[in-house]
């Protein structure tokens, strides 16, 4: 990725009606069943590769530069590396692709295939030191996979933890164990169905303040801190359905994973449809969805968030193909 070209193209999204960021579901099947998650359907069919490639072609035509590939568990999709390579073939690779995974299915061969495909970032969901009642995604289970990533990954690895009362209690120890790993770290906040935050309290604020976190969280850090304090009064405008697109397994655009909104078939969508969704949403108050927040704050307050936006790109390694 040529970062200067990427920034130049992303800046255009401040002025036009095109999208910048999309989350694309490749399956709702998952190998785990975490208690806090409602974004999976055990045994669900995977979206065929040919259909996914059509969706990528359309998202690229709608202006998307930043992609999250997710599920369910996307590593269960046999054609995942081929799909990522298809995304990176757009715009001469001047886009950004993140894979969101629980990591249980990672192998050295898969990591090498993701390297070859041009993956920019792996967001690895790891919640605790030991498995708990909410999640099996623990260091006890995943430490061998983290060592594999440390040795073989050419992409950035970001360790994402869902902040709950259970995970907060041992997060300091969690970070100490991973001190020597060259990874970025971030939080998702436990939320209710609908996306509203489900945890508040000073202990969460103190934990949030205590740790160095991935630059993307700095795009909405003040608002995230206020959410943890139970203060939902800070005004913001959600760009779900306009600049941020969530594409479900049926190929429809939703506002986000928790809110359908206009529910438009992607392959029929136009920039006029995206512009129509550039409105305040009734679900904005207390929304804890970092994906929607990230892009909404970056484009809603571009001067204020410029430094944080640039810091996100700093941790993405330059590919040799950029030379």
List keywords for this structure.
323 residues, alpha/beta, TIM Barrel, 9 strands, 34% helix
Q: Main beta sheet, described?
A: 9 strands, mixed
Low-confidence stretches: none
CATH superfamily: Aldolase class I
Shape: globular
Overall mean pLDDT: 91
Provide the gyration radius in Å: 18 Å
Class per helix and strand makeup: alpha/beta
Spell out the helices and strands N to C: HEHEHEHEHEHHEHHEEEHHH
Q: Give the tally of β-strands.
A: 9
CATH class: Alpha Beta
| Strand line-up of the largest beta sheet | 6-5-4-3-2-1-7-8-9
CATH fold-level label: TIM Barrel
Secondary structure tally, helices: 12
Question: How much of the polypeptide forms β-strand, as a percent range?
Answer: 5-15%
CATH architecture: Alpha-Beta Barrel
End-to-end distance: 10 Å
| Number of self-contained structural domains | 1
Q: Residue share in helices?
A: 25-40%
Task: Outline the fold blueprint.
Elements: H1 3-12, E1 21-25, H2 49-61, E2 66-70, H3 80-88, E3 96-101, H4 108-117, E4 121-125, H5 139-152, E5 156-163, H6 165-168, H7 171-177, E6 184-189, H8 202-210, H9 221-228, E7 244-247, E8 252-254, E9 264-265, H10 271-276, H11 290-300, H12 306-314
Parallel strand pairs: 1-2, 1-7, 2-3, 3-4, 4-5, 5-6
Antiparallel strand pairs: 7-8, 8-9
């Amino acid at each position: 990725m040529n970062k200067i070209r990427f920034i130049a193209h992303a800046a255009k999204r401040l002025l036009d009606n095109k999208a910048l960021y999309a989350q694309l579901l490749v399956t709702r099947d998952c190998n785990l069943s975490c208690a806090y998650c409602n974004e999976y359907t055990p045994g669900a069919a995977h979206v065929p590769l040919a259909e996914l490639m059509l969706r990528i072609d359309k998202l690229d035509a709608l202006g998307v530069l930043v992609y999250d590939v997710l599920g369910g568990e996307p590593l269960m999709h046999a054609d995942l590396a081929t799909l990522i390579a298809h995304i990176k073939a757009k715009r001469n690779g001047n886009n950004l692709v993140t894979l969101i995974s629980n990591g249980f299915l990672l192998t050295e061969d898969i990591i090498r295939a993701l390297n070859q495909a041009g993956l920019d970032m792996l967001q690895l969901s790891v919640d605790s030191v030991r498995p708990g009642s909410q999640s099996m995604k623990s260091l006890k289970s995943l430490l061998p996979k983290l060592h594999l990533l440390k040795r073989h990954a050419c992409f950035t690895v970001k360790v994402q933890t869902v902040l709950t009362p259970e995970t907060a209690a041992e997060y300091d120890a969690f970070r100490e164990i991973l001190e020597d790993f060259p990874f970025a770290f971030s939080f998702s906040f436990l939320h209710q169905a609908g996306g509203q935050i489900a945890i508040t309290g000073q202990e969460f604020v103190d934990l949030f303040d205590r740790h160095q976190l991935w630059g993307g969280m700095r795009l909405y850090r003040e608002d995230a801190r206020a959410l943890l304090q139970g203060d939902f009064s800070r005004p913001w405008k959600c760009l779900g359905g306009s600049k941020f697109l969530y594409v479900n397994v049926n190929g429809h655009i939703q506002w986000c994973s928790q809110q359908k909104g206009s529910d438009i078939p992607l392959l029929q969508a136009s920039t006029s449809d995206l512009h129509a969704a550039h409105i305040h949403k009734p679900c904005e108050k207390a929304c804890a969805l970092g994906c929607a927040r990230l892009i909404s704050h970056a484009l809603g307050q571009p001067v204020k968030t410029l430094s944080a936006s640039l810091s996100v790109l700093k941790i993405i390694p330059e590919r040799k193909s950029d030379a």
